[in-house]
Amino acid sequence: MTRGRYFFAEKNGITYIKMVGNLKYTFSSGFDQFVESLLERGFSNVVIDLSESDYIDSTNLGLIAKIAGRARGREDMHVSIVSPNEDINAILESVRFDKLFTIVDKVPEVDALDEIDDEQRGRQEDLRMLLDAHRALMDIDEENRPKFKDVVELLEKEVRDF
After folding, report:
1. 119 CB neighbour count, 10 Å cutoff
2. How far, in Å, CA of 128 to CA of 125, rounded?
3. Cβ proximity of 19 and 56 under 8 Å
4. pTM of the entire predicted model
5. Which of 60, 65, 68, 140 could form a disulfide with 136 if both were Cys (CB 3.0 to 4.6 A apart)?
6. 89: phi then psi, degrees, rounded to nearest 5
7. Which of 5-9, 35-39, 76-80, 135-139 has the lowest mean pLDDT?
8. CB-count burial class (<10 Å; 0-12, 13-18, 19+) for 18
9. Residue 52 phi, psi dihedral angles, 5° rounding
């Protein structure tokens, strides 16, 4: 499996995010910064392309959930996921993304993509990213609460004790 990489393009009011390879939290701090920036400046339409993703961990799912959390209940915002991979789709469904996102299997044509650089941060920032991402997953659906409750409690303790 290849190391996770993240790309983006913005065109005609659409933010296009492409996530490639083995998506693990150890290389997602740059993507976390990108998501925070996107949430700060606002958006109307986001397309998240997972068509070349081999694996996605719960932290990366949580970072995607943060985007959807902002769009939830808003008629002027739409977030969709492109995923033709049945294994990835099973992961998405297990955390109830099928209830929150439009999931399609066709990849839209997008011109040049810019890579989102990974940023090395300290342990405290990484813990905060992990905690926020897993809280976002819990907020998607009541069924997710028991799945991530122990992880969130452990991360909260680590953040407090840091």
Report:
1. 13
2. 5
3. yes
4. 0.92
5. 65
6. -60, -35
7. 76-80
8. buried
9. -110, 20
Reduced to 3 states, what is the DSSP secondary structure of residue 43?
coil
pLDDT at 71: 78
- Residues making up the chain, counted from first to last: 162
The predicted-structure confidence for 129-140, as pLDDT tens digits, reads as follows: 999 999 999 999
In this prediction, residue 126 has a pLDDT band, given cuts at 50, 70 and 90, of very high
Maximum distance among all alpha carbons in the chain?
47
Task: For residue 66, give both structure tokens.
Answer: 């943060």
CATH number of the domain at 38, please.
3.30.750.24
| Contact criterion met (CB below 8 Å) for 14 and 78 | no
The tally of domains found in the chain comes to: 1
pLDDT value at residue 1: 66
Range of the domain at 65: 5-161
Instruction: Name the nearest CA neighbour of 80 among 101, 51, 108.
Output: 101
Residue bearing tokens 């993240």 = 6
Chain centre distance of CA 20: 12
Query: Roughly how many angstroms between the first and final C-alpha of the chain, as a whole number?
Result: 33
Q: What is the pLDDT of residues 96-122, one digit of tens each?
A: 999 888 999 998 888 899 999 988 788
